[in-house]
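This part of the workshop introduces the protein records we will be handling. To make this concrete, we reproduce a full record directly below.
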Amino acid sequence: MDLKSLLKEKLKKTEGVKKSPSESEKQEDEYFQAYMKQYCNKLPNEITGIPRFYNKLPKEDEPLRQKLREESRSNLLKRKSQNLLDNNELKELWVILDQNQSYPEEQLITYTDYQKVVSLVGPKVKPYFTSVVFAKLQQGDPQGRVSIMSLFNYVMRKVWLQQTRIGLSLYDSTGQGYLTEIDLENYITELLPTLPQLEGLEKSFYSFYVCTAVRKFLFFLDGVRAGRVRILDILACSFLDDLLELRDEELSKEVQEQNWFSAPSTLRIYGHYLNLDRDHNGMLNKSELAGYGSGTLTQPFLDRVFQTLLTYSGEMDYKTYLDLVLALENRAEPQALAFLFRILDINSQGYLDSFTLNYFFRAIQDQMRAHGAEAVSFEDVKDELFDMVRPKDPEKITLNDLIACGQGDTFVSILIEFHRFWAYENREAVTAEPSQD
């Protein structure tokens, strides 16, 4: 019997019989399973199911699986590290580049000689010398030549990145490409003895130093506050370069003061924290935090800080203080603006309106009167703030608007700190003074 006849017979049997949706779905599933089984039986030598692409992490009560996973990852990282170039191989590479450069007086190499170099180097070096790399390293030379110094620096940088990635992966406790706060603390703790610029730190201060260093990674790289940072993000940012810069024994004092991870910088931050802690209980309350910086942070802002951030019985610990310091010292950065925007958004509505701006600016007006100056009209400041940001919605300022305008740091400073507002209000007079002199 053909298919057409079977369908007609089936229709006659079911004619006048109405099934519920659940019964129809059940019957449809039965037919599907039957036909699928029939189809799979016809393909005995082919894959009949979806291959496994996800394996759960071993549980705490599965020590054998955990040990197997650790050993497998350790062997994998060991094999990858063995494939990296060592110092002797890098020296041999430079000798080959130097001997085969096309124009010795300019240290340039053509693509023909570049291919010759590729034939001379070992198998570990060949992956770095591709035609794509040669094209990327060109700097507008009319003859299409490339500097051998650029080639060598490229290889060294790639090797350093791969070494660093393997080194960071050794501290990845889950093996998923992330470092948790504890993983980062372990990494930096073991890195401390290799940094000559930190030799003067007392061992009792190590825990505070590690905490200070780790907070910067988490603040800027952990945007969703998941308590972990991707290893690729660590490699892509400059923080690790700043940290490893402390290996330079002749690092100038000016450079150290600008480096968050240096001993002078961390001691300065921790010293400020101790100076603010007037009752010496290791925590900061609202009145103590009011002395931060120039001491002109407004009361509404301080109230919101303690409402929004993690506190313990109304007092702030050192970690939370570090987050606030990073936000206030880097107000132009998107992560800092997101941090401060959450504090300013008093109604958690995702935007700042005239009511919110007025709520914070009233404290600035009060401080102006306290200093014997005539308070600036809020309407004038409001119009200036909206003109500064130029939001998509003329009555609402979102975080994206604040980041896109390029003046988010000035916008925030006007609302939260009298000293910064006064400097902005008198910027024209301050700018004119040098020219008059």
